[in-house]
Amino acid sequence: MRVSDSIQEVRDITKECRKSGLSIGLVPTMGFLHEGHISLIERARRENDFVIVSIFVNPTQFGPNEDFDRYPRDMARDIKACKEAGTDLIFAPKTSEMYPSENLVYVDVKMLGDSLCGAKRQGHFRGVCTVVAKLFNIISPNKAYFGEKDAQQLRIIRQLVQDLNFDTGIVSSPIVREADGLALSSRNAYLSPDERKASLCLNRSLSNAKKRIIEGERDAALIRDSIISQISSEPLARIDYIEILNAETFCPTDKIVHNTLVAAAVYFGNTRLIDNFTFEGETK
Question: Is 95 found in the same domain as 168?
Fold first, then answer.
């Protein structure tokens, strides 16, 4: 396994891969890897000849009062995890390599970024799309792998590929959870023991909502109110948003039908966690 912080070196390596007819799988990350990331790397390993993991805490997707400076980082640990999962190349550029000067051009997002995290984190998805576009241009992967925990990000990246004609397939994988149901996230490391215990109300409330939907409830307002009620009963929880939307258009919906996204963001102390599920519709 190789580790590079150079755009030109990575371009040279991937150029040789393509000349040799090797397929390239990319797993974009911000590091501090957990089992969710590892599952993406392992899938990329199964489906491609050459696997690249990018590790870059992207400053353009963080707001001025967000956690860029304290975002967890542990490169030695990440290198070990990547090697064990079968990675061929880690691309870990410095900020000065990815942004040698102030960008005058960004990739903007309309409509799909107006709700959920996009509404709460102004400029976040502009930063995400810009860095993903840069990674795709540098690496030209055949496939890129993303988790479904960031449902809005996943939907926007699919649109990015479609609208900007990237020749990259987007592969999504289900949310990976702790044994008690908490969705894995690098930010879970911020939680105190009490906050970690309290955070279980997030998945529990969504699981109960999903059960009600499967049993036949279709009123989105009732489902949303039930989630809010359950989370609000936890003193350490502070709701950022609970939304029920069409999973394709990200427009709010009053009635739960095929392809409905139920998404939540909740603070536990200063730590903001997200979770979601998609109701695909009736099974036959």
Answer: yes
pLDDT at 204: 98
Verify that 198 and 169 share a domain, yes or no: no
Query: Active-site residue among 34, 37, 124, 258?
Result: 37
Paired with 24 in beta bridges are 50
Question: 15 and 95 in one domain?
Answer: yes
Total of domains in the chain: 2
Name the residue range of residue 209's domain: 186-278
Q: Is the pLDDT of residue 284 over 50?
A: no
Q: CA-CA distance, 270 to 187, in Å (whole number)?
A: 10
269 & 195 share domain: yes
Give the model's confidence band at 281: pLDDT under 50 very low, under 70 low, under 90 confident, else very high. Answer: confident
Tell me: do 164 and 201 sit in the same domain.
no
CB 183 within 8 A of CB 203: yes
Can you give the pLDDT at residue 282? 65
Residue 283 pLDDT greater than 60, yes or no:
no
Q: Please check whether residues 46 and 107 belong to one and the same domain.
A: yes
Q: Is 37 a catalytic residue?
A: yes
Amino acid identity of 166?
F
Tell me what the mean pLDDT of segment 70-79 comes to: 97
Q: pTM here? A: 0.95
What is the C-alpha to C-alpha distance for residues 272 and 236, in angstroms, rounded to an integer? 12
